[in-house]
Fold:
Amino acid sequence: MTATITAFERSPDRGKGLARDMRVRWALEEVGQPYEVRLLSFAAMKQPGHRALQPFGQIPTYEEGDLSLFESGAIVLHIAERHAGLLPGDANARARAISWMFAALTTLEPPIFERDMVRILDREKPWYEERLSALDETIRKRLSDLARHLGAAAWLDGAFSAGDLLMVTVLRRLQGSDLLEERPTLAAYVARAEARPAYRRAFAAQLADFTASSAG
Ligand code: GTB
Structure:
């Protein structure tokens, strides 16, 4: 059964693929599963119909037969558990890959996401510079630890996994900033992931959706 996901009708990032539907699209492409996309306006996301799928009125969601899911991490884990290609077969390696999924979403993503929010929403606040530099310091520590772990390896733990997929979607938010560019190990890690055919297909699909909705 073909899954349906939801995404922004008109992504505020103007096609950069930074919204969290991108990780779901990429996971589906990695495992070779077709999917359909329902594009939603901000108003539609807050309607009861969508809140029945996503209690917080956000994207992405995932529907497949009588299953509906929200939370991008849970959706990627579901896809990785149902289809080969994103989690190792060995039980211990699989558990480690899942640890990296959590690390991406709970150790790296919060300060990186908050940094973007502060930069967008709080520029006029008296505490702006102080908060930004505190977040930059936290992020630098996390990136330094991540780069040390990665070392010369291609991926976080053996073969490419859902842990790498989520980690790269989080790190992409730092592209163009010194924080990522000053760490060539991590910049190369992101570039390596972005060169994957599945990533490129997912990126092209979200860009096509953005372009079509902007033309309409
Ligand atoms: N924890 C949830 C998950 O992982 O699924 C968080 C979902 C979430 O934050 N969704 C955002 C949303 O629906 C879109 S991804 N926001 C609308 C709302 O809350 O009303 C976050 C996002 C938005 C925009 C950009 N951008 O333009 O660069 C990047 C990321």
